[in-house]
Design a protein that fits this description.
Elements lengths: L1 H20 L6 E12 L5 E15 L2 E10 L3 E4 L8 E4 L2 E15 L3 E16 L6 H9 L6 E15 L2 E9 L1 E3 L3 E2 L2 E10 L1
Antiparallel strand pairs: 1-2, 1-12, 2-3, 3-6, 4-5, 6-7, 7-8, 8-9, 8-10, 9-12, 10-11
């Protein structure tokens, strides 16, 4: 009896293996990305950071996604008349982004284009401390209403896949609302895995 159950399981696995190998790989997706954010209100400050995202399909071409990115402290240069030619200093600005919303996709199994509209927050933190993992954790724990701003992100991009592994690039306008709407260029790109 035990031997026939093992043989039956083996035959079933052999029969289902091609179907499992050819599966769609398109039910959910996780990824990490590098994030570029140009802050228009702070003199076009260029922020760079890291983030992660996860999404799952609610229909074949509709995905719900959530993401968080952390732009760590950046250096900037400036010059003035009568000074050394170039001065370099830290900006003291760290930015935490949290966004959630739908993405509409189209294309083939190996190449997809998408548009998205996400809502969430942008949190500005001013600190002279360097951007370390410990400071990221304290920035997340210190989310407060008074330095968090509502955000809206319309954007789009492309995803290229080889089986379950791929690469995704997004470009959009991350609008945050503080004394009016502020439009900011945001570009993100990185590896993704779908399953």
């Amino acid at each position: 009896m035990k031997r026939s159950a093992i043989m039956l399981a083996g035959a079933l696995a052999f029969y289902l293996a091609p179907a499992l190998y050819a599966q769609d790989y398109d039910h959910a997706e996780v990824g990490i990305f590098a994030n570029y954010f140009r802050v228009s209100q702070l003199g076009n400050l260029n922020q760079v950071g890291l983030g992660g995202r996860a999404g799952f399909n609610v229909r074949h071409n509709v995905k719900l996604e959530g993401e968080m990115a952390w732009d760590f402290n950046q250096g900037f240069t400036e010059s003035c008349s009568g000074c050394l030619p170039v001065q370099t200093a830290r900006s003291g600005v760290r930015i935490l982004h949290g966004l959630f919303g739908p993405a509409l996709e189209g294309g083939t199994h190996s190449a997809k284009v998408f548009v998205t509209l996400k809502g969430g927050f942008v949190n500005f933190r001013f600190s002279p401390e360097p951007g370390t993992f410990g400071n990221f954790a304290s920035d997340v724990q210190a989310l407060r209403f008074n330095n968090s701003n509502a955000a809206l992100y319309p954007g789009g991009g492309i995803k290229l896949f080889a089986g379950p592994f791929g690469f995704r690039v997004d470009v959009g306008d991350e609008i945050y609302f503080r004394d009016g709407a502020h439009h900011n260029l945001r570009i993100a790109g990185g590896p993704v895995i779908r399953f």
